[in-house]
Design goal:
The longest helix is centred in the first third of the chain and has 21 residues. With about 260 residues, this protein is an alpha+beta fold. The strands form four sheets. The protein has a four-stranded mixed beta sheet, covered by helices on one side. About 40% of the residues are buried. About 30% of the residues lie in helices and about 25% in strands. The protein has a domain of about 170 residues: Ribosomal Protein L22, Chain A.
Length: about 260
């Protein structure tokens, strides 16, 4: 299976597996919490800082809206979730429809104080991560825990001005891959490698030595988001089929959530 970055592409309802990635800026919890369930609202109430509450509520509302776009039979507030063995969330039977499960619909979400993102895919595994691009000093402090030897060598070859974006792009890519695999920190970060062709075209080139996963099975998408600067990474794999196409969509979450009342 070939590997390619298709973050700018689109696909029809037939053809290669199609990943939808939605990105939004966090908005006030008051605009979206009507979409959340009781457990999500209880957790929302425990946040100490408004920015963290907004990003949490916005990410979970965005996910529900994106899932309903994939399957309009279920209203955004009707989606129910369970946790797999290693903590990865997955879909349970929608409320009021205990006889149906969307077994082939996978999702993932990520949030920061600047952006929230969610990704959905039928027939494969997917992970998404959004990471603030911080300073060179922070990158240097963290690199020994994150980068493989090959990545570290490639980073050193870049001018210092370009190193922060490359480092946090790699970190975001690794987080998206680990989330797609659903195994948490059982996959050591330093044994996973991504290589680059230009600034924002990446591919998975190395997986942990004792792992049977094939890098060529994964499609990778990477995009820079600005104001403030973030890296958005998506990693997806179909189950034995052609490479996944990835489409990124920016949405205005507040009005979209209000229209779903």
């Amino acid at each position: 299976m070939g590997q390619r970055d298709t973050s700018e592409g689109s696909t029809a309802s037939v053809g290669p597996p199609h990943a939808e990635v939605w990105v939004a800026r966090p908005c006030s919890p008051d605009k979206v919490q009507h979409l959340l369930n009781d457990e999500e609202r209880a957790r929302l109430a425990r946040f100490r800082f408004d920015a963290d509450a907004s990003s949490y509520a916005s990410a979970h509302a965005l996910l529900r809206l994106a899932l309903t776009e994939r399957d309009p039979r279920t209203a955004p507030s009707g989606w129910r979730f369970r946790t797999a063995e290693f903590g990865k969330p997955e879909i349970e039977a929608p409320a009021g429809d205990q006889g149906r499960e969307d077994a082939d619909l996978r999702f993932n979400l990520s949030h920061s104080r600047g952006f929230v993102a969610t990704a959905t895919l039928r027939g494969g595994e997917i992970g998404v991560d959004v990471e603030a691009i911080r300073t060179l000093e922070v990158a240097r402090e963290l690199r020994s825990r994150v980068l493989s030897p090959l990545e570290s060598e490639a980073l050193d070859a870049l001018p210092p001005a370009l190193q922060p974006e490359r480092f946090f792009s790699i970190w975001s890519l690794k987080e998206s891959y680990i989330k797609a695999r659903g195994l948490g920190l059982r996959l050591p970060l330093r044994e996973i490698s991504f290589s680059f062709h230009g600034s924002h075209v990446a591919q998975l080139s190395e997986t942990p030595h004792l792992d049977a996963d094939e890098p060529s099975d994964w499609t990778v998408g990477l995009r820079r988001l600005d104001d403030p600067a973030h890296a958005l990474a998506v990693t997806a794999a179909s189950q034995g089929g052609p490479p996944v196409t990835i489409q990124v969509r920016r949405v205005d979450l507040g009005p979209l959530a209000q229209s779903a009342r």
